[in-house]
Amino acid sequence: MTVQKLPMVKAINESLRHALAADPKVLVMGEDVGRLGGVFRVTDGLQKEFGDERVLDTPLAESGIVGTAIGLALRGYRPVVEIQFDGFVFPAYDQIVTQLAKMRARSLGKVRLPVVIRIPYGGGIGAVEHHSESPEALFAHVAGLKVVTPSNARDAYWMMRQAVGGDDPVIFFEPKRRYWDKDEVDPGATPLPLHRAVVARPGEDLTLAAYGPMVKVCLDAARAAAEEGRSLEVLDLRSLSPLDFDTVQTSVEKTRRLVTVHEAPVFFGAGAEIAARVTERSFYHLEAPVLRVGGYHSPYPPSRLEETYLPDLDRVLDAVDRALAY
Amino acid sequence: MTTGTVQFLNHEGELTSHPDYEAEISPDGLRKLYHDMAWSRRMDAEAVTLQRQGELGLWPSLLGQEAAQIGASHALGAADYVFPSYRDHGIALCRGVDPLDLLRMFRGVTNGGWDPAEKNFHLYTLVIGSQVLHATGYAMGLAKDGAQGAVLTCFGDGATSQGDVSEAFNFAAVYHAPVVFFCQNNQWAISEANERQTRVPLHQRADGFGFPGVRVDGNDVLACLAVTRWALERARSGEGPTLIEAFTYRMGAHTTSDDPLRYRDGEEVAYWNLRDPLARLRTLLEARGWADGAYFDTVAAQCEESALDLRGRLRATPDPDPGDIFAHVHADGHALVDEERARFAAYQATFADAAGRGE
C-alpha cells in the first residue's frame, strides 16, 4: 500500500489487513465480520483474503466473543474482536472487566492477553437506541485496560497497528460518524506513540481538549473563534488510558484556560478526570475554572433529538465565552 | 447415547461393568487413585483448619467431590489443559500444582498463585462460569494449531445458570472445539438446590447444543475416569465437545463462610455419607486383596506428614511487597500506573526516613 487518501473505515481495514498478513497469530472475530465485512464494512474482504480460520464469523453472543478471545489469547493468538455497536458491549462487560483486565496481574505477569476490542461508538448518524453511546469512561476507569480512540483516518490506521502489535488488552473506540471522513495515510511514515496526545491546532487563549468524534467539532469551533480574534488550541487526546497529561499540562499552562469536550455524559466522565488533574497540576496557572461540555445525564435520546444532545460548535463556543469571561 | 447414570463401582464397593465405557485399570492404578483422593481430602481438611485458625481468609472445601476430581484428572494427558473452577483442588494436585500456591490465594497473598502454562492448569476464577468460555477459546486455538491436546473445564451446577456457560456450549459446538465440559453437580449452589438452577437434568443440556451429554456417578472414581477418558479422546480425535455431569455431593459448606445447616437436612447428608467415594474404593481394594490395613495406614501417615509440611510452609509465607500492587498490571507499561507507583514509593520513603531519624 502506498500513500493514499482513505476514509477511516478503509484505513482500519488496511491496518487489519496488514496485521493479518504480518502475523499468523492475529485473528479477526465478531458478528458479521466475515462474509458481510462488518455492518460498517470495516472488515470488508478480510475473510475472503485470509479465510474463515483467521476471520471468524461468531455466534451472536458478546460475552462469548470476548470470553473465547481470552482463551485464544492464552493459547498464543492475538484476537481483534468487533463489538457491533457501543450499546451492545455490556453483555461482554463482565468478561472485559473481571477477566481480560485482571488476568495478567493475577498471574503475576505470566500470561499475556493481547486482545483488541473494537467498538464503533458515539452518535450523529441517526441510529436507533443502543447504537450511539459513548461508554469510554467505564473502560478507562478499569485498571488493566488501555483505552484509545482515533479522531481521523491516519491515526486510526496507525493506532490499530500499534494496538494489535502490543501485548496488552486495548479497547479501541472507533468514532462511527467519522468513518467516512478521509485523510492521508502513509504506511511508510513513522507514527506517534499510541498513547501520545497531540496539538491538533495551536492557539494562545484557551485549550479545547477532545478526542474521537469531538476533535472535528472543536477544530471547527476554533476556526469560528479565530474569526472573532480568539486563538483556541485544540488537543486530540487520542488515548484515555493512559492519558497523556504532560501534553495537557503544557497546553493549559500556556493558554491558562481549559474546556473539555466529549459526547459522553459530563457527570463522572473523562472531562471530570482531566479537570481534577489540571487543578492538581496547574492550579496557579489557571485564569478560569475548567469547564466541561458533553452529553446530559440522560439516556442517549432518540435520534430526532441527538443534535440537541450532542455538543456542537455553539455549545463549545458558549463554554469558551464563559471561560474567557473570568 | 446412554441416558442412565454411568457407574462402575457402586456404593457398597462392588465392581460392575458398562456396555459403552471402558474402566480397565490395574491394582496399582486403583491404589494411585485412592492415594490421590486421600491426599486431596487431607489437604482440604488442613485448609479448613487453617482457615479456622485465621491463616486463610476463606476456603472452598472439596469434601465429597474427590472421586469426580481425581477420576477426571487421571484421564488427562500431559498435553491437555485444564480450566478449573475454584473448588478443584484435587485436580490441581494431580496437575502438580503446589498446594501452597492454592492456599496463598485464599490467604490473600496473591490473586492467582501459579504459572498456568507450567502445569497446563489455569488460574482459579471466582466469577461463576467465566472460565468455561476461556476453555472453549483455548480449545479453538488448540484445534487451529493442530495440537495434540484437549481441554477440560470444570464448573458447578450453579454455573449452568450463567449465560457464559451456555454461550461456551454453543461456541464449542459451532466451532467443533476439543473441549470437555465437566460439571460437578454437587446439588447445591451455596444454599440453592438444583431445582432453583434447572428444570431438566443438566447432562441433557448438551442435546440442545448438538453434542453428547453423559451423567456419571460422581462419587465413583472409575466412572469419572472412564467417561472423561472417552470424552477427551473424542475431543482429541476431532469429534468435538462433550458435557459430563458428575452427579455428586458437596459434604461440607460452600465455603468456610457458609452454614449449610440453615438450608439442608441431616437425612440428605447421611444418604450421601453412605456413598462416600473413598470408602467404596477402600472396600473394593480390601475385598480383592489389593491393599491391606498397613497400606491404608501408610497412605494416612504420608498424607499427615504432607499436611503438616504444608501448614509449616503456609505459616512461613510472607505478605507480598506493597509495591506489588503496581506490578504486572500491563505488559507494555502504563504511564499513570508508573506515576502512581512513583508517588507511592515516595510516600513510603517518608516513613523510612522517619524511622531512620528515630534511631
UniProtKB/TrEMBL annotation, chain A:
Keywords: Oxidoreductase, Thiamine pyrophosphate. The keyword Phosphoprotein does not apply. It holds the Pfam family Transketolase_C. InterPro entries: THDP-binding (IPR029061), Transketo_C/PFOR_II (IPR009014), Transketolase-like_Pyr-bd (IPR005475), Transketolase_C (IPR033248). SUPFAM superfamilies: Thiamin diphosphate-binding fold (THDP-binding), TK C-terminal domain-like. Residues 6-181 form the Transketolase-like pyrimidine-binding domain. It comes from the Bacteria. GO terms for molecular function: magnesium ion binding; oxidoreductase activity. Gene3D superfamilies: 3.40.50.920, 3.40.50.970. Its cofactor is thiamine diphosphate. This is 2-oxoisovalerate dehydrogenase. It comes from Streptomyces cyaneogriseus subsp. noncyanogenus. The lineage of its organism: Bacteria, Bacillati, Actinomycetota, Actinomycetes, Kitasatosporales.
Automatic annotation (TrEMBL), chain B:
Its cofactor is thiamine diphosphate. It holds the Pfam family E1_dh. One of its GO terms (molecular function) is magnesium ion binding. InterPro entries: Alpha-ketoacid_DH_E1_comp, DH_E1, PdhA/BkdA, THDP-binding. One of its GO terms (biological process) is branched-chain amino acid catabolic process. Residues 37-304 form the Dehydrogenase E1 component domain. CDD domains: TPP_E1_PDC_ADC_BCADC (cd02000). This is Pyruvate dehydrogenase. Signal peptide: none annotated. PANTHER family: 2-OXOISOVALERATE DEHYDROGENASE SUBUNIT ALPHA, MITOCHONDRIAL. Keywords: Oxidoreductase, Pyruvate, Thiamine pyrophosphate.
